[in-house]
Design brief:
alpha/beta, metallodipeptidase activity, 15 helices, TIM Barrel, six-stranded parallel β-sheet, three-stranded parallel β-sheet
Length: 407
């Protein structure tokens, strides 16, 4: 028997014995594979707050059920999240000189913490300053870190202070948060300025001068109207939703969606205001007491953090939270695309800031959105625009306007 015959006989014997070649690799989900190829950016990561938690590391794996965090490097890798805009968030306080100075210092320290995270892990993260940087950073196998400002209150009465934050990496900045401040009316507070304040108009001009994209999430509809009328560059809503799906002050109506798109802007759909849910009075009271005991600006020791987590888990067990579903999130996203067009919609899920729905617990679950978009008939090119192409186009437009010679 020659060598070829011996090989064929041996192969036949292996088949008969059930010892044929076995692959150890699990089937690859096409949506998950596409997610890894795409440049995937989220425009509102509140994860910098996690950097201040005692003993917490961005490079270690955590779980949403374990410590209520939703973003870390292992989960970013699993879900294909390449990075995005890491928020310098300052909860609104009194509009006094002393409180505003403290807010300024807090914001500068938070910006420094983001930069220190990158410096401590240069093999995993890289700062981005230009729209073109994101693709290059992904190609180098690292995660993209742009900075953003949520709530401009820390700037005080000096819009020029934005230049310092821009030098630190800020490329998107919002005006207000849950309460009206010196720059704009909030969508969830009483109006004082009927839109942007005179100082807010100055801040908008400074954003345009520097190449910072104006963010009108949290600001009132009239403030959005002012920004659309006055801005020399397109506007972004970094984490907002659609009033047609859930009528909430934080969401915008179809008329504003169309106006935003007509001006070249983008709405980034969040995962908080997607469905009207009324929690039980018992849960609301318990959570309010917990928040009073552990306010956002309080620095906890490791022991206090563990106590907080135990108390939070006890509330969840006794008074379970009513949660929106993944389908509710997709209803928001698909409605925005239908009204504004696929070139004017993106993703800003408010991770680590209250985001997440049942079925989309943390960033490891992102391929579910891609799978749903493909199933709805959108092409890979469409999905690429939604995950990063649209926001980078807006950022590039802001850069170009800032670089043009001023007359």
């Amino acid at each position: 028997m020659n060598a070829r015959s011996l090989l064929l006989a041996a192969s036949a014997a292996l088949v008969l014995l059930g010892a044929g070649p076995v692959s150890s690799k699990a089937p690859v989900d096409p949506a998950a594979a596409l997610q890894q190829r795409l440049l995937t950016l989220d425009t509102h990561l509140d994860t910098p707050a996690s950097l201040a938690l005692p003993g917490w590391s961005i490079t270690e794996a955590h779980t949403a059920g374990g410590d209520y965090t939703q973003v870390d490097l292992p989960r970013m890798k699993k879900g294909g999240l390449d990075g995005g805009f890491w928020a310098i968030y300052t909860p609104q306080g009194p509009l006094t000189a002393v409180a505003t100075r403290k807010a300024r210092d807090f914001a500068l320290l938070r910006a420094s913490a983001i930069r220190e995270m990158v410096a401590a892990h240069p093999e995993s993260f890289a700062l981005a300053g230009k729209a073109a940087d994101a693709a290059a950073i992904k190609a180098a196998g690292k995660r993209v870190v742009y900075l953003s400002i949520e709530n401009a209150w820390p700037l005080g009465d000096d819009p020029g202070l934005l230049q310092s934050f821009h030098a630190m990496g800020v490329r998107i900045a919002g005006f207000a948060h849950f309460r009206t401040n010196q720059f704009a009316d909030s969508s969830t507070d009483k109006a004082k300025w009927d839109g942007l304040s005179p100082l807010g108009v100055q801040l908008l001009a400074e954003m345009n001068r520097l190449g910072v994209v104006p963010d009108l999430s949290h600001s009132s509809d009239r403030a959005l109207d002012d920004a659309l009328r006055l801005s020399k560059t397109p506007i972004i809503l970094t984490h907002s939703g659609c009033k047609a799906v859930f009528d909430h002050p934080r969401n915008i109506d179809d008329a504003h969606l169309k106006a935003l798109a007509a001006a070249g802007g983008v709405i980034q759909i969040n995962s908080v205001y997607v469905k009207g849910l009324k929690q039980s009075p018992e849960r609301e009271a318990a959570m309010k007491a917990l928040e009073a005991k552990y306010p956002e600006d309080k620095t906890l020791t490791a022991e206090q953090r563990q106590t907080y987590l135990a108390e939070r888990r006890a509330i969840d067990a006794k008074f379970p939270e009513l949660r929106a579903s993944f389908d509710d999130l997709m209803a928001n996203l698909l409605h925005a695309i239908a009204v504004a067009g696929v070139e004017h919609v993106g993703i800003g899920l408010d991770w680590d800031g209250g985001g997440g729905v049942a079925g989309l617990e943390d960033v490891a679950d992102l391929p579910k959105i891609t799978k749903a978009l493909l199933a709805a008939g959108y092409s890979e090119a469409d999905v690429a625009k939604i995950w990063s192409g649209n926001v980078l186009r807006v950022l590039a437009a802001a850069e170009a306007a800032a670089e043009r010679p001023k007359s």
